[in-house]
Specification:
heterodimer, A: 343 residues, ABC transporter involved in vitamin B12 uptake, BtuC, two-stranded antiparallel ribbon, 13 helices, 4 strands, 73% helix, 3% strand, B: 240 residues, alpha/beta, 37% helix
Chain lengths: 343, 240
């Protein structure tokens, strides 16, 4: 065995600003909340809007998280991701309608049980659909971005038309489960119960994803694969299989997001996924392509910005998130938490 | 002499319209360090990348212990026991040193005795075990890159320019670690531009030019024949 080397290992102490740099994106959330507090005249309105913004952000995160990993891992741009949102919403709502007796009963346990069944049904359907979508539509166009955009958009259109064939062209209005209707009052502010549930589910999904990515071997492979897929394969891991697994999981999460988004808006249409894609893409881009943490922070910023601006200046709501994206990309052109790509 | 651990027979590799390897023949003996030498751009890195499967051989055969691995995907080649240290080190900058090593231990948890051996070869890795690999210095990153290959026993190690751009003290550490590996009976195919390292470690030597193998023999012979070095590589080792 070798002797110790002559050189002593050292690691330079970084300047304060450089050490703070990784935390800057996280700090943007409280900064935006404080700015909202200063701009909104009523503190109760501010509290309602903040919870609403966080709930919206959580749902966008759930829908977007799969897309960012799919892009990061295999450099695949999936414009068809919105199809899973729509299908998830339709399958979930269909299950909820079937379980009408459970959802209309004034029992939180029964309501949540029905919601769980609907969520699992939606996730199973979109997971299977994700597997087929990857096999039929995405696999033939690996490495060709332009073809990926065209073919996945085509896939989205086909799925939207299939939804119209199966469920009809009309919007479907839905009622939330009985116990999730209405609002609770906190510090004088009315906060919708459903939004609190959405915040809770979003947090659980984020923490679970983070735990899997940080503490399991498969998570390590995914994180390493986002950075340098070629090297992961040279270590002996079949990245293609991992990618298919991530694609299926991402599709299932989009399905979950679809159910929650549908219940949030209380109406579903075949095009709802397509419409949500604008926000999803903004979140994925400002977060940093391939970064789950960046996606989470970006989603919360987008949700808060949308709610605050819609209250203060409704006409500006549509462009507020585009403005947010422009500002963040001017600050960090690769997104808030850029993934270091090896190639 | 026993059968070689690795054998390339007339391997051609094209990258886009470029014909990089043009009929490479190579034998890597078991339990020895085989140097792959030559000027920049003659196909050394392409040879290693073709063996590991990153690029496909269009013609010819690659045999690992007699088994044809030419058409196998990269993960299967790696799992057959080929450890690869690429020229760009290929470390995962966002992962900690520990996570990089855990990932490299493909067959299960890290063997503590083996890890101690790796730490003895590369002490900085123990110091920065919980640090993100992206924060390491260039030399420490190279140590991590080689340590990842060493953390499990492999049938063959493909190592591409491990001393490139490193300070002399770090080069000594690298050379000692590779000698440790060699002393354990490892079979190594090593691309190296630092001739003093090549001379110290190499048993056999193969020199490439224009995508072909132009000379194969003992490292000792090449190291002592300035005229041969001049003819094959356009320079003399004495300059180093």
């Amino acid at each position: 065995m070798s002797a110790a080397p002559e050189h002593a290992p050292t690691m330079a102490q970084l300047p304060l600003m450089q050490r703070l740099a990784p935390w800057m994106p996280v700090l943007l959330i409280p900064v935006l909340i404080v700015l909202g507090f200063l701009a909104i005249p009523s503190s109760t309105s501010w509290l309602t809007l903040t919870v609403s913004g966080l709930a919206m952000g959580m749902m966008i995160f759930i829908m977007a998280s799969g897309l960012t990993l799919v892009f990061g891992l295999m450099d695949v741009i999936n414009f068809g991701h919105g199809a899973f949102v729509s299908v998830g919403a339709f399958v979930g709502v269909s299950v909820l309608l079937l379980l009408g007796q459970m959802t209309s009963a004034p029992s939180l346990a029964l309501n949540l049980a029905a919601l769980m069944v609907a969520v699992f049904g939606a996730m199973a359907a979109t997971g299977v659909m994700g597997w087929a979508f990857e096999k039929v539509i995405v696999e033939p166009v690996y490495g060709h971005h332009l073809k990926q955009i065209l073919v996945t958009m085509g896939g989205l259109i086909v799925v939207e038309q299939l939804i119209i064939v199966l469920w009809g062209p009309e919007e479907i209005y839905i009622a939330r489960p009985e116990a999730l209707k209405g609002a609770v009052t906190f510090a004088g502010a009315a906060i919708e119960k459903y939004r609190l549930v959405a915040v809770g589910i979003g947090l659980v999904v984020f923490l679970a994803m983070r735990w899997v990515l940080r503490h399991t071997k498969i998570g390590l492979i995914v994180r390493a694969g986002v950075e340098n897929g070629e090297m992961v394969q040279a270590l002996g891991y079949r990245l293609r299989l991992v990618f298919v697994g991530v694609f299926i999981a991402g599709s299932a999460l989009a399905g979950l997001g679809g159910v929650m988004w549908g219940l949030y808006q209380e109406v579903i249409t075949a095009h709802m996924g397509n419409q949500a894609m604008i926000l999803i893409f903004i979140v994925v881009i400002i977060g940093g392509l391939g970064s789950v943490e960046g996606c989470f922070i970006g989603a919360l910023l987008v949700g808060l910005m949308q709610n605050y601006v819609a209250f203060l200046e409704p006409k500006a709501a549509l462009i507020s998130n585009i403005g947010l994206m422009v500002a963040i990309l001017m600050w960090r052109p690769m997104g808030m938490i850029p993934v270091v790509k090896a190639k | 002499m026993s059968d070689p651990i690795l054998k390339l027979e007339g391997v051609y590799t094209n990258i886009a319209q470029y014909h990089i390897l043009q009929g490479v023949d190579l034998e890597v003996p078991r339990g020895a360090v085989t140097m792959l030498l030559g000027r920049n751009g003659v196909g050394k890195t392409t040879t290693l990348r073709t063996i590991i499967g990153h690029w496909r051989a269009h013609e010819g055969r690659i045999l690992l212990d007699g088994e044809d691995i030419t058409r196998l995907p990269t993960p299967a080649i790696a799992r057959a026991g080929v450890g690869f240290v690429p020229e760009d080190m290929g470390i995962f900058a966002d992962l900690t040193v520990e996570e990089n090593m855990r990932l490299a231990a493909v067959s299960g948890p890290i063997d503590p005795a083996r890890l101690d051996w790796v730490f003895s070869a590369f002490p900085p890795l123990k110091t920065f075990w919980k640090s993100e690999a992206g924060n390491l210095s260039g030399g420490q990153k190279q140590m991590l890159s080689i340590a990842r290959a060493m953390i499990e026993e492999r049938r063959l190690y493909l190592i591409d320019e491990p001393t490139k751009g490193l300070a002399p003290a770090i080069i000594s550490t690298m050379a000692r670690a590779l000698r440790d590996l060699k002393d354990q009976g490892a079979s190594i195919l090593l691309v190296e531009q630092n001739f003093s390292v090549a001379r110290a470690l190499g048993d056999g030597a193969n020199v490439m030019d224009d995508g072909r193998m132009v000379w194969s023999g003992e490292m000792k012979q090449l190291a002592t024949d300035a005229e041969l070095q001049e003819r094959l590589m356009g320079l003399s080792m004495e300059a180093h």
